[in-house]
Inverse folding.
């Protein structure tokens, strides 16, 4: 049976050789050069956000290409390096907040139809990978996948900040049974912060259910 698996794996590699999602370099899905191009941990300022927001990369160049490959082109193996980078950011966030090592990661919501098209909620995959990284170090980290965006919300690509906020009012919703409880510090995680509208709507929706989000952390963020 192992022989057949090896043969199958070899055929996949032959027909679809690995290429870096950021620069196309052969032999890896995410090379060290593109990993370095993400940038470093930084504060992100958006007027609509009432909690501190951070990112571990800039949404540009190879970082943007890699994230789109992960999000839209089905390259889910990128959850491993991206989740590792998100875990690095979470360590920094915990230090900023004085939160210790007990975190609850809440993935930013997506529309159900978009999640199905993409093969599942991609931000949840990132959060789980980051949680696994930190848990392996002895942290107490859990993921509460409790948010979703109603189907009545339009695709926000290309919308101005004010339009995005109007589009999401009342449409970011909480699954009551999945609401986190306990002493863990809640951090909303996302793939990219643009206007901050999605994160702001998520923070408000969670607050209405008694969950205080202490910070937002995204893999990337636009310039502003």
């Amino acid at each position: 049976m192992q022989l057949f698996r090896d043969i199958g794996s070899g055929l996949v590699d032959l027909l679809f050789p690995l290429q870096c999602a950021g620069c196309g370099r052969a032999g890896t899905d995410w090379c060290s050069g593109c990993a370095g191009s993400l940038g470093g941990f930084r504060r992100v300022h958006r007027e609509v956000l009432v909690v501190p927001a951070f990112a571990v990369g800039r949404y540009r160049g190879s970082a943007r290409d890699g994230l789109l490959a992960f999000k839209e082109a089905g390259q889910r193996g990128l959850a491993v390096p991206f989740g590792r980078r998100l875990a690095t950011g979470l360590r920094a966030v915990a230090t900023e907040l004085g939160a210790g090592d007990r975190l609850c990661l809440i993935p930013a919501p997506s529309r159900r139809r978009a999640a199905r098209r993409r093969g599942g909620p991609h931000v949840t995959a990132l959060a789980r990978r980051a949680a696994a990284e930190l848990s392996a170090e002895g942290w107490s980290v859990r993921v509460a996948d409790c948010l979703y965006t109603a189907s009545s919300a339009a695709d926000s690509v290309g919308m101005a900040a004010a339009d995005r906020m109007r589009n999401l009012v009342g449409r970011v919703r909480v699954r009551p049974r999945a609401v986190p409880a306990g002493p863990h510090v809640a951090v909303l995680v996302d793939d990219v912060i643009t206007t901050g509208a999605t994160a702001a709507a998520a923070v408000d929706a969670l607050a209405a259910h008694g969950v205080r989000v202490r910070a937002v952390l995204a893999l990337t963020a636009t310039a502003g």
Q: What stands out?
A: The chain has eight helices and eight strands.
